[in-house]
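Let's do one together. I've listed all components of the complex below, 254 residues spread over four lines.
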Amino acid sequence: MRIGELAKQAGTTTRALRFYESEGLLEAQRTPNGYREYDEHDLRLVREIQSLQAVGMSLQDTRPFIACLRAGHESGDSCPDSREVYRRRLAEVDACLDELNTVREFLLARLAFQDPCAVPEEIPCNS
Amino acid sequence: MRIGELAKQAGTTTRALRFYESEGLLEAQRTPNGYREYDEHDLRLVREIQSLQAVGMSLQDTRPFIACLRAGHESGDSCPDSREVYRRRLAEVDACLDELNTVREFLLARLAFQDPCAVPEEIPCNS
DNA sequence: GCTTGCCTTGACGTGCACGTGAAGGTTTAG
DNA sequence: CTAAACCTTCACGTGCACGTCAAGGCAAGC
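Okay, and this is what the predicted structure of the assembly comes out as:
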């Protein structure tokens, strides 16, 4: 399939796919006229990138997964480098959760500090 | 005090303070030669901005707090508009926590799916 | 009085990440 | 025949919070 078809199947744009190629994440066979030619395996790669991005990974983070799939593994996360990225991302997420919980406590304390209905005639409690 | 002194006291830069002024967050008296002249109240405003930014608020979000302080209130968060910003930020934080927890579960599941020590001779479990 | 170091304004640049847009051309599909 | 899809490269966009540079005016110590 050509780039437009792959974009449609993956729910992205041809521009993004060319950008992935420029980043070395995606390669394409070329037809004699220079058009990119993709197969199901490439679609799999794009989906892998998308699912990793969906959990907050950067494009750079997806490299080991792509390499793992290219190396013939069934899933992109069965290689050591991929698992290391998982662990790093997990640590990031944990740190972010800690920070957000601290912020949350702060906000709750501030909101509780004063009665929200102190001036009910101006700001009724129906928002 | 002049802008350099205020910047030092607040632990920021003269650039940032001028930027705040351009955004209407900070105003300054001017000496006859055109220098900005600040007092303790202005320092208080800058500290308010900083503490709000520390809990993830944008500069725009700080406007109601600044207005509240300017209106003569003792704390910037005692006005309805400020409290509304608190609530909005709290909702954002809660949404972010939910999302991060989902991501966390995903990552844990993926890491547990395969034995991390499947290839111990290459990747020992001491990281 | 001269150097050093404040201060003024305005326009534009930076960093990050992930693309998007435009120009200018060829190929394919109907 | 024409419109849609494809190709290339380079540069620009997005959002936020400033930073940098230019070109010059004031102040204070020695």
